[in-house]
């Protein structure tokens, strides 16, 4: 019989890497060149149909990346079934920040949490790439994370990212 399962998903990562933009693309299929920085966190939902029998509903917490909001993050990743940790492929420092979020999740979040690392803004990579794809991919393999390079701007791999996560969740 058909079933709809709900999962709590949290987005984490440095300010301006494109967390809200990825969510806006996924939920509304829109993009803004001038998005305002998130205050606190935003909540949105979206469903992914995996097959005729199975729909996954994501309850998405889009957290604020600015340093002053860092202490709020545990409220959002506690009880999360899945996390998308985002960096900007043009900003190596943002991958270091992503790694520190991943360490924190591995220590403090649910031990079964599904974690995806997303290298966003890949539309800029031809001229401004700062993080080689192989470096991030190797790190993701070592840490057993899902990994994709994405673009909220041109839609590359955005629905694929959420579908890949949905397929890793316990669907029984
Ligand atoms: P905080 O809310 O401060 O944590 O930032 P955020 O991670 O939510 O970033 P946000 O989505 O607000 O995007 C920051 C800026 O990057 C905005 O000007 C976006 O238009 C731009 N941006 C986001 N995603 C992409 C992308 O895939 N490609 C390009 N070229 N720009 C992007
Ligand atoms: Mg935001």
TrEMBL record:
Asked whether the keyword Nucleotide-binding is assigned, the reply is yes
| Top-level lineage group | Eukaryota
User: What does the UniProt keyword field contain?
Assistant: Cell membrane, GTP-binding, Lipoprotein, Membrane, Nucleotide-binding, Prenylation, Protein transport, Transport
Q: Tell me which Gene Ontology terms the entry assigns under biological process.
A: protein transport; vesicle organization; vesicle-mediated transport
Compartments (UniProt record): Cell membrane
Q: What is its main location?
A: membrane
Look up keyword Cell membrane and say if it applies.
yes
Q: Which GO terms describe its cellular component?
A: endosome; plasma membrane
Protein's name according to its UniProt entry: Putative GTP-binding protein ypt5
The portion of the full protein included here is 4 to 175 of 222
